[in-house]
């Protein structure tokens, strides 16, 4: 589904990604962990060209995203993304926020956009909050609206960049529950997060990054139970204890 090869990214003289190779299979949940500054979010943002890679290849469903003539906006419709910040329009209801992409991007008629927005909100457990404005919603509910907005475009893969890091601890569970449901529905997901218990329970594969490289990867039982690299062991000893 997503095949990254030799990916590098430099900001000036600083090389943030140093030749990343990573493949994500259909319906797989790949969880990326690592210390701050290891390049995790940059990797995610390169996967839909919110950051332009310096070198390498990113193929999505067999198509090269870095090809000169690729329609990146069309490709982004197939690659949903959820950020740490919710980025909701405060003057619009939850329904209005979800409808906006359907109207502007997919050019759907208003009635169809409304129906699909309501269906997406119901999918994340907010069917009864469609008419509420963001300031009347909790942080967890706002993040679920952001997920519904991405899901409404019917993406083939979802990228999650620290989706719970801005939430109070008691609100995290509702967002992770939605992500569990998406996995159960067969959604392909690439997730950057510090939610280690969720990674242990839900991920098919865990990738540990440090210093702009993938240090090791494997099933959660291996990475959390018997990591082979000292850098991985040191990181996990800090975050799990």
Automatic annotation (TrEMBL):
Source organism, top-level taxon: Bacteria
Molecular function terms, GO-annotated: ABC-type amino acid transporter activity; ATP binding; ATP hydrolysis activity
Transmembrane segments: none
GO-annotated cellular components: plasma membrane
Membrane topology: Peripheral membrane protein
Keyword list, A-Z: Amino-acid transport, ATP-binding, Cell membrane, Membrane, Nucleotide-binding, Transport
Domain ABC transporter: 2-236
Localization, UniProt: Cell membrane
InterPro entries in the cross-refs: AAA+_ATPase, ABC_ATPase_HisP-typ, ABC_transporter-like_ATP-bd, ABC_transporter-like_CS, MetN_ABC_transporter-like, P-loop_NTPase
UniProt cross-references to Pfam families, sorted A to Z: ABC_tran
Coarse class of the protein's main subcellular location: membrane
Protein family (similarity comment): Belongs to the ABC transporter superfamily.
UniProt protein name: Ectoine/hydroxyectoine ABC transporter ATP-binding protein EhuA
